[in-house]
Design a protein that fits this description.
The protein is an alpha/beta fold. Helix content is 38%, strand content 12%.
């Protein structure tokens, strides 16, 4: 396992992290809590030390699961969690829509104390605004409160997770965070097929010493290499929202599979699987400190944890990927409109 450090801090994290929502909710098919606990422990055994969760996942259950999985091992792991959705005044939406948010300093203090209690710890290593819009990032009172919490030791660093689904506005939000706030880092959706948020901000992140974390590294499973054109998902699986209409299915699944065929050169004979190549692509960007894949079974965990043991992508590989992405993978026979792309992006609940 490779390890990286948040710029300007002593917070060291595994380059491959663990997105806890996969094992603490039912959105990826895991319904047995013990299965999730076992996977978390196996992750640490394989060198994964960075665990990213949120108070809203399973209404706090995705925080308590870390306490259950790692009793007496707090100093071996780095914990990131999130706040902002008012889970105390508003129940979950059955259609997975966002709940109302509360960015007041009073609520942030309250939410932090509740998270610390559920996590069974005296500190949060990376505390994130959960899917804020630009107005929340511009709140001086919120930044002042987070700085005070950092000074008190309750949080070691803070930033924001941008979402929920990928949206081009997040490039502007990330730029504002990097250039105009004291935040330590930002979490975005970024992968071989969805680069529109990361590409505009990486140079700024490097220059300003801001950490970047990425989620959905396999485009909701497309880059794991095991989906096909006729795939169906179980009820409750969040990927059903990618395919609520034939057009959305075409944009995400059908075109995605065609694009992946053109990426064969980075996997197979190159000595890595497509899943591992997808992670190596992301880690080729120096500002990225950790990738947060969706982990849902032991064989996949072993494969992803070993990604940094494979050879990094070469400069020529990266150049070819850049050319493919810039030209929409040369799928000239299947032109789509900007409106259709926007529709697909907003439909994709990469949730969080």
């Amino acid at each position: 396992m490779e390890y990286r450090t948040f710029p300007g801090t002593d917070i060291r994290v595994s380059a491959v992290g663990f997105g806890v929502w996969t094992v603490a909710t039912t959105w990826w098919g895991i319904t047995d809590r013990q299965v999730g606990i076992d996977l978390l422990r196996q992750g640490l055994d394989r060198g994964i030390t960075f665990f990213d969760t949120a108070d809203t996942y399973d209404d706090g259950g995705a925080e308590t699961i870390l306490k259950e999985a790692f009793p007496g091992r707090r100093d071996e792991i780095t914990i990131a969690t999130k706040f902002g959705y008012d889970i105390y005044a508003h129940r979950p939406d059955p259609n997975q829509r966002e709940r109302p948010q509360n960015w007041s300093p009073e609520y942030v203090r309250f939410a932090c104390e509740k998270s610390l209690e559920r996590l069974g710890t005296d500190r949060i290593d990376f505390y994130q605004l959960h899917n804020p819009r630009i107005d929340a990032l511009q709140r001086d009172d919120l930044m002042a409160e987070l700085e005070a919490m950092k000074a008190s030791g309750k949080i070691r660093s803070y930033g924001a997770t941008l979402g929920p689904a990928i949206d081009t506005r997040q490039a502007d939000e990330a730029e504002y965070l990097i250039e105009k706030t004291p935040m330590d880092g930002v979490q975005i959706i970024y992968n071989l097929l969805e680069q529109q948020i990361g590409a505009p901000i990486f140079e700024q992140a490097r220059a300003r010493g801001k950490a970047v974390l990425t989620r959905v590294p396999h485009a909701s499973g497309l880059l794991e290499g095991n989906l096909h054109a006729d795939v169906t998902f179980a009820p409750g699986d969040h990927r059903n929202w990618r395919m609520t209409t034939d057009e959305r299915k075409r944009l995400w699944l059908d075109r995605g599979l065609k694009k992946i065929e053109k990426l064969d050169f980075i996997a197979g004979q190159a000595g890595r699987t497509m899943s591992q190549a997808a992670i190596q692509f992301i880690l080729s960007e120096p500002s990225i400190v950790s990738v947060l894949p969706n982990i849902y079974d032991a064989p996949q965990l072993a494969e992803l944890a070993a990604a940094t043991d494979t050879a990094p992508l070469s400069a020529s590989d990266l150049q070819k990927i850049a050319d493919l992405y810039a030209n929409d993978f040369y799928l000239d026979d299947d032109i789509i409109t900007e409106a259709a792309i926007a529709d697909q992006a907003k439909a994709a609940l990469a949730s969080r």
